[in-house]
Amino acid sequence: MSSAMIQADGGGQSDVKGNFGGQGVEVGETTYEGPCQRMCGAMGSLCAGVMLVFITCYAEFSNEQTFVHAEATANLVKTATPVGCTRNSAQSYPDDLVIVSCPVTQPDMSSLLPNLLSRYVDTFYGSSISWNMEIYQWQESSSQNCRKTNTGGQECQTIYNYHSAWSSTPISSDTFHSTNPEYQNSGSFPVNLHNGRVGAPLADVALVLDNGNLWYLSQNLVDQFPLKMVNVEGPPQSENSYPGQGDLESTMLHADHGYISTGVPGAPRIGDIRISLIGTGLPQNGYGTVCAQQTFDQQNMAFGFRQYPGQPFDFWGRVTNPLSHFEAGHLSPKQFEENWHNENAGTAFIFRIFLWFLMCYSISMIFSPLSVMADGLRLINFVSCGLGSLLDSAAQSVIQCAAFLVGSVLFLIVFAVAWIVSNPTFGVGLLAVALVAYFIGLHFAHKTKAVKGRELSYVKIVDLP
Questions:
Q1: Domain housing 244
Q2: 243/8 Cα distance (integer angstroms)
Q3: Taking the CB of residue 440, how many other CB atoms lie within 10 A of it?
Q4: What is the C-alpha to C-alpha distance for residues 148 and 444, in angstroms, rounded to an integer?
Q5: Do residues 372 and 151 make contact, with C-beta atoms less than 8 angstroms apart?
Q6: Dihedral of the CA atoms 60, 61, 63, 66 (nearest 10)?
Q7: Longest dimension (CA), the chain
């Protein structure tokens, strides 16, 4: 179905929306690279791989340093004073590091949304809501089907794939390889609505004490609130059609599986809009646990929190990060600390796995010239029945396995050095143990040699008859 120009139901604007999308494939050009061209590309890949190795090494050291400081900061929770949700508790520990778990009050954020969206959100108690628009567009991707030649070159055919999907920005179809009007994009975001975010006033987000007084949270603590689903409710079908440009009216929208969308439910056209809402906050009347330095404003008689300054955690002079941490739920100090340690360990582990694969990929790039050279084995195909291809496939498998092994070993070496540097006390202790073991072994070696020498000196000489 080609792009239509029809009269919209509302606003008197021309409808510029396109078809209902779908998917398609077109075969593109065929290109050929000779052995010299491929080797030049492989040398460029080698240089990029070397740079990527150094970047990966730096990232490994940075990750371990960050992990050690995060763990040391979490250990400060042991030194925090547990306090209750009472006015007396809040007054008793000014400027101390405290840990407290209380109910959290949050305002209804629905009234702060733009008028176009507020009618679709009945209530939302939380700390923030953000909204992001997407537009339904044709999208192009390409892939190559390559075949190696017997001369060491490579012949590739480009395949262009087209499919319709939601995009965060309008896509110009002028850059597409295809000139087929079926893949023509149209439409734009409305002029009267933009992506945005509203946050709750800090005076409305606080811990609730037993007498109704509030213990106000800092912006740093509020920013740590978890994501919270925003319930979208409204008419299941739009009264009017969004024309794909100009102003967006509330009657052009409908609720659609958690989104606020234009068009026909379940059948968007090119140029239709959908809006996602993402919130942060806690369940209504839910609990939050805070570990931070408490404050008391004498002038306004208000209790609050601020970041606890970093503290030295070893005799090398290193200090922790400033401490101001929030966890959702009614947690004991032990649970709070365990959760924090688990978060730190999980984040560090994910980065380690990513850096491991990145290191292996970097070594694979460095081995690219070897891969191109191995393709020269295909010359044997001129005097044999496919033996060159078989040898080339075997060589490529060996090269890739070698890249994986070298990358893994290099990653482990760098990781071990980074871990020891990040834990210098342990590193010095390990070095001391190694030196002691070396000298003990050296001492026993000399002692064994001396015993053997004495045994030789007592050899009995027998006279011959």
A1: 6-40+83-334
A2: 6
A3: 10
A4: 61
A5: no
A6: 180
A7: 133
Q: Are 143 and 159 in contact (CB under 8 A)?
A: yes
Cβ-defined contacts of 451-458 (< 8 Å, 24+): none
319 token code pair? 């200090």
CB 139 within 8 A of CB 171: yes
> What are 465's two structure tokens?
């008859």
Query: Residue 437, Cβ neighbours under 10 Å: how many?
Result: 10
Cβ neighbour number for residue 44 with a 10 Å cutoff: 12
Enclosing H/E stretch for 353:
helix 333-366
Using CA atoms, how far apart are residues 157 and 375, in angstroms rounded to an integer? 19
Looking at residue 11, what is its pLDDT?
Answer: 47
* DSSP-derived pairing of the beta strands 97-105 and 81-82: parallel
Q: Is residue 423 part of a domain?
A: no
Q: Is 187 helix (H, G, I), strand (E, B) or coil?
A: coil
Token duo for residue 234? 């409204």
Instruction: Please count the helices (runs of H) and the strands (runs of E) in the chain.
Output: 8, 17
Is 1 part of any domain? Answer: no
Whether the Cβ atoms of residue 226 and residue 282 lie closer than 8 Å to each other: yes
Distance, CA of 62 to CA of 47 (rounded, Å)? 23
d(CA 273, CA 277): 13
- Strands (E) across 222-378 are located at 227-228, 254-256, 259-261, 273-280, 287-297, 302-306, 325-328
What global pTM score does this model have?
0.82
Is the residue at 227 inside a domain?
A: yes
Query: Tokens for 55?
Result: 């970047």
User: Which tokens sit at 293?
Assistant: 């330095």
Structural domain contains residue 307: yes
Q: What is the distance, to the nearest Å, from the Cα of residue 236 to the centroid of all Cα atoms in its chain? A: 35
Chunked into runs of 10 residues, the chain (465 residues) has average pLDDT values of 38 66 90 91 95 96 94 94 77 83 93 91 94 95 91 91 95 92 92 94 89 87 94 84 88 90 89 95 92 80 87 88 95 95 96 96 95 89 84 92 94 89 75 77 73 56 53
- Give the up-direction half-sphere exposure of residue 352: CA atoms within 13 A in the CB hemisphere: 18
**Radius of gyration, CA atoms only, the chain:** 34
Task: State how many domains the chain has.
Answer: 1
